[in-house]
Amino acid sequence: MGRLGIRGKRAALTLFLALAASGCGNALAANPAVPKVRQDLTALREAMIKYVVSHGGQRPAQLTDLLTENAKGERFFPGETLPLDPWSEEYVYLPGSDDELYDIVTYGQDGLAGGEAENADLSLQMLREGRI
Q1: Looking at the 3D structure of the chain, how many domains does it have?
Q2: What digits encode the pLDDT tens for the residues 53-105?
Q3: Which residue range is the domain that position 67 belongs to?
């Protein structure tokens, strides 16, 4: 196969950028659960930030701690319950160590770690990285 000239390289780069921008080639882009998971993880992250600030930098032991009230009587997470993932399962909280970031995960439709398409794991770390 011959080498690409400058026009060929530009065309290849343009195609790559177009596919990346459109989400084509990314199985997660076609996953209908992504918008709800993104919304839930954003709300949980905001509640986590409020909790950590209110507790002098300490993370909650479990996600349900976000349903407790601060000194002003306000819940860290609004509402009576935490959201469930699109498959009606609880989100999994991975607290990490003191020097590691925590994560919040859904294991997808099959409920098992790993997987692709609708069975793909979706996490707060992926949201932080802009992958969902």
Answers
A1: 2
A2: 999 999 999 999 999 998 899 999 998 999 999 999 999 999 987 778 899 99
A3: 31-128
**CA separation, residue 116 to residues 13, 32, 87, 107, 125 (Å):** 26, 13, 15, 10, 17
pLDDT band at 1 (very low <50, low <70, confident <90, very high): very low
Q: What is the 3-state secondary structure (H, E, C) of the chain?
A: CCCCCHHHHHHHHHHHHHHHHHCCCCHHHHCCCHHHHHHHHHHHHHHHHHHHHHCCCCCCCCHHHHHCECCCCCECCCCCCCCECCCCCECEEECCCCCCCCEEEECCCCCCCCCCHHHCCEEHHHHHCCCC
Report the CATH number at residue 38. 3.30.700.10
Residues 107 and 113: beta-carbon distance below 8 Å = yes
